[in-house]
């Protein structure tokens, strides 16, 4: 391992509180093309049992530090080309710990467009600037007269002094240590103020909370930061970073003056130099640092929002499946009717039609008869109802259907339509149903996501599911990367049926690309169902590496080898043989209780470490176990269909649809999710909502306020007659101090660091 890599790996180990050995082993596997799910599940001995979340953090930090090193190499090469070899500068460049500090050190030497300072230097004014800075006892006007040169466009003393000032302003504003101190100072002391742009009050009413707002920038939580930045982007808000305290407002200029030994001692050049300091701050640094810190605020807010989105998405993807049952899906609508589809246990479309039970047609009785006939014909066991327009009325229809026809043994469940329209218009849906109208494709999605949310939701862009906060405002590349990782981890945690999974689902398996997934499906169609995992090696372009990565996550229920239906990797099959030999039984006759008598340590050898032995024993005890929770449904209150039906203190059951940093949104069946603010989540203090509630969780809530005009509902999960607990106060981002500095010169972005149910779990975006 090179010295550079050793230092880099040690830094990651320290930051993530793991060992250097764990980091080194993990990086080697990542560089060799191993996926995070594979490493997390089947290489625990090498990683010291790092979780998939820890591995993702390591992977992300590794990418940042490698980008930092690449930029460092580019900068050193640039300095070499310029003939700059100052030892102190090169040492600063080589040891810079962040991208920001690296760019600060490089700033004075970075090739740039011709500035007024450069023009002044070309006019021979650098000596004038430095003489005034180094010896303020000289009279600026007298000294400047020596540099008048008509040929170089320096026509008088004023022009000479202006040029000298340009040079000093650039010098002062490119001092890396000073920039770092000022940036830190503003981050913890400056307030971000927001005011409405004149004449935009009515049009920008949704940002009214920020028409006259101020808060220390380091304390602004992510959801407020994103709202402020969106208000500015849409032209409704003016943002400005200011030091409102008069004493604090003087410090930046004082620091600049002190850094260059400038002071008012009644010398001829003191006033001129202090005015140069003032212009450096007010005309140059204040604006550039404001931009830096707003960008930093956005980075932190993006990271936090992406983390929230990822947490919510994980809960939805790992929501309990209702199971392989014939399902009738109802996509509600009034004038356009209710689209009805029936899919079999595997999600195959059996029937589609439309009924008109609601206004203006009001064919209620006829619709009941049509639905009853379909239920009897196909032995429907689940009724999946989309939660959009006319959903409660359609839910009432389904309830009456079940009550009126006792022979129908079906469970009705309301699910979210979020993303169904995106799927229905996608190329994927067109490939699945080339002749089916898009309105019915959406209904198919609603039915399938009740059967198995994971298998269906992977077909939809995660951003379309809408369980984040301000997801359209955050960095889309980082958001996509973060969500893709969540989807991959969830799919591999559950595993997929090799003989029924779609190519889209297969493509999420570790080691498989979209083209390999298509090849698997094509091979399956041409040769019939896979009988064993070894057949995967016959799939075109699926080599040994892909097989190694994917095999353990691909299941073959009812295949030739029972182990192929489990999470036991083929490379561990000899270990199973060893265990069965010890128990003197066959896999088909294995009594799981006998496994408890075995000592895992007894099977540890050079090929299989203790974590692998323990995982294999656990899998043999419960082969093919699904990590997702038991399926449950929520019951919405009868007669509560719209906001006007709600009353203060009304107790209701609902389903958490979205969790944000400021609380949770809950579907209570009125077409408008209610907000349980963080202070109303529990009788005790709640620091982070996502640690207390999850999307899909069934909760009991109490109505505390209803605003029909603004379509807002406030809910509480606290006991009645309890005083609100203290609301969580966000902390400023952590600052890292370098050795030998009393004040940190850089702001370091903080790292972005299954008990859910399905019913109505998918949230509409809340902003």
Globular, elongated, flat, extended or rod-shaped: what is the shape?
globular
Strand content: 5-15%
Question: Can you count the beta strands?
Answer: 15
Reading side by side through the largest sheet, how are the strands ordered?
A: 6-5-4-7-8
| Multimerization status | single chain
Number of helical segments with 4 or more residues: 28
Structural class: alpha/beta
What is the mean predicted local confidence, pLDDT? 90
Radius of gyration: 32 Å
Please tell me the CATH architecture of one domain by its name.
Orthogonal Bundle
Largest sheet: 5 strands, mixed
Tell me the name of the CATH homologous superfamily of one domain. Tex N-terminal region-like
Could you say what the CATH topology of one domain is called? Answer: Tex N-terminal region-like
Kindly describe this structure:
α9 packs across α11 (157-172), α11 (157-172) packs parallel to α15 and α15 runs parallel beside α23. This protein has 767 residues and is of the alpha/beta class. The strands form four sheets. Strands 6-5-4-7-8 form a five-stranded mixed β-sheet, with helices on both faces. Strands 11-12-13-15-14 form a five-stranded mixed β-barrel. A three-stranded antiparallel β-sheet has the order 2-1-3. Residues 726-767 have low confidence and may be disordered. The protein is globular, with a radius of gyration of 32 Å. A hairpin with a 5-residue loop joins β5 and β6. The protein is built from 28 helices and 15 strands. 44% of the residues lie in helices and 11% in strands. Among the domains are: 3-109, RuvA domain 2-like (Arc Repressor Mutant, subunit A, Orthogonal Bundle), CATH 1.10.10.650; 116-309, Tex N-terminal region-like (Orthogonal Bundle); 323-451, YqgF/RNase H-like domain (Nucleotidyltransferase, domain 5), CATH 3.30.420; 568-621, DNA polymerase, domain 1.
């Amino acid at each position: 391992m090179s010295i550079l890599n050793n230092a880099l790996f040690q830094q990651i180990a320290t930051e993530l509180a793991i060992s250097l050995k764990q980091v080194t082993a993990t990086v080697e596997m990542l560089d060799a093309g191993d996926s995070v799910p594979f490493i997390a599940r089947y290489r625990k001995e090498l990683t010291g049992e790092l979780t998939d979340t820890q591995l993702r953090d390591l992977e992300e930090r590794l990418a940042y530090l490698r980008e930092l090193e690449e930029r460092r190499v580019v900068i050193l090469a640039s300095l070499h080309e310029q003939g700059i070899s100052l030892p102190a500068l090169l040492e600063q460049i080589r040891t810079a710990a962040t991208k920001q500090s690296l760019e600060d050190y490089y700033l004075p030497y970075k090739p740039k467009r011709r500035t007024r300072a450069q023009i002044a230097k070309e006019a021979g004014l650098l000596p004038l600037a430095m003489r005034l800075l180094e010896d303020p006892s000289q009279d600026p006007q007298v000294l400047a007269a020596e540099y008048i040169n008509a040929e170089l466009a320096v026509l008088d003393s004023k022009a000479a002094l202006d040029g000298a000032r340009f040079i000093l302003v650039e010098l002062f504003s490119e001092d890396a240590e000073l920039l770092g101190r000022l940036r830190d100072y503003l981050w913890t002391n400056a307030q971000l103020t927001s005011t409405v742009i004149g004449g935009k009050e009515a049009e920008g009413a949704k940002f009214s909370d920020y028409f006259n707002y101020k808060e220390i920038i380091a304390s602004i939580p992510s959801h407020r930061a994103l709202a402020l930045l969106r208000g500015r982007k849409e032209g409704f808000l003016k943002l400005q970073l200011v030091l409102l305290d008069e004493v604090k407002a003087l410090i930046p200029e004082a620091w600049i003056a002190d850094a260059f030994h400038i002071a008012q001692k009644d010398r001829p050049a003191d006033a001129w130099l202090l005015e140069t300091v003032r212009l450096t701050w007010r005309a140059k640094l204040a604006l550039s640092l404001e931009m830096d810190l707003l960008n930093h605020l956005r980075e932190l807010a993006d990271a936090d929002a992406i983390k929230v989105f990822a947490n919510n998405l994980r809960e939805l993807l790992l929501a309990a499946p209702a199971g392989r049952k014939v399902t009738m899906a109802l996509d509600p609508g009034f004038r356009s009717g209710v689209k009805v589809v029936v899919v079999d246990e595997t999600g195959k479309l059996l029937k589609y039609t439309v009924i008109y039970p609601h206004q203006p047609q009001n064919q209620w009785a006829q619709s009941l008869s049509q639905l009853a006939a379909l239920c009897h014909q196909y032995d429907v066991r689940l009724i999946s109802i989309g939660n959009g327009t006319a959903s409660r009325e359609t839910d009432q229809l389904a309830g009456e259907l079940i009550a009126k026809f006792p022979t129908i043994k079906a469970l009705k469940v309301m699910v979210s339509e979020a993303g169904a329209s995106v799927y229905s218009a996608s190329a994927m849906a067109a490939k699945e149903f080339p002749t089916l109208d898009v309105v019915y494709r959406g209904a198919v999605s609603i039915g399938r996501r009740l059967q198995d949310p994971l298998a269906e939701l992977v077909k939809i862009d995660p951003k379309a599911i809408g369980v984040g906060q301000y997801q359209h405002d955050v960095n889309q590349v980082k958001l996509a990367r973060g969500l893709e990782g969540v989807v991959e981890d969830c799919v591999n945690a559950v595993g997929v049926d090799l003989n029924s999974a779609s190519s889209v689902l297969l493509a999420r398996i570790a080691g498989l690309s979209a083209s390999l997934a298509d090849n698997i499906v094509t091979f399956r169609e041409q040769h019939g169902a896979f009988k064993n995992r070894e057949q995967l090696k016959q799939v075109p372009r699926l080599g040994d590496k892909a097989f190694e990565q994917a095999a353990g996550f691909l299941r073959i229920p009812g295949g030739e080898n029972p182990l192929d239906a489990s999470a036991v990797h083929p490379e561990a099959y000899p270990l199973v043989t060893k265990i069965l030999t010890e128990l003197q039984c066959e896999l088909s006759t294995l009594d799981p209780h006998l496994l408890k008598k075995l000592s895992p340590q007894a099977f540890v050898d050079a090929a299989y470490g203790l974590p692998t032995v323990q995982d294999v024993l656990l899998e043999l005890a419960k082969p093919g176990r699904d990590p997702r929770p038991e399926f449950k449904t929520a019951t919405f209150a009868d007669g509560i269909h719209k906001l006007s039906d709600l009353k203060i203190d009304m107790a209701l059951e609902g389903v958490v649809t979205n969790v944000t940093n400021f609380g949770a949104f809950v579907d209570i069946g009125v077409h408008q999710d209610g907000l349980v603010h963080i202070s109303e989540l529990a009788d005790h203090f709640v620091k982070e909502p996502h640690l207390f509630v999850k999307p899909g969780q069934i909760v009991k809530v109490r109505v505390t306020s209803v605003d029909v005009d603004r379509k807002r509902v406030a809910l509480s999960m606290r006991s009645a007659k309890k005083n609100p607990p203290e609301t969580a106060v966000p902390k400023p981002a952590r600052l890292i101090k370098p050795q030998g500095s009393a004040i940190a010169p850089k702001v370091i972005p903080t790292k972005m660091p299954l008990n859910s149910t399905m019913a109505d779990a998918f949230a509409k975006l809340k902003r």
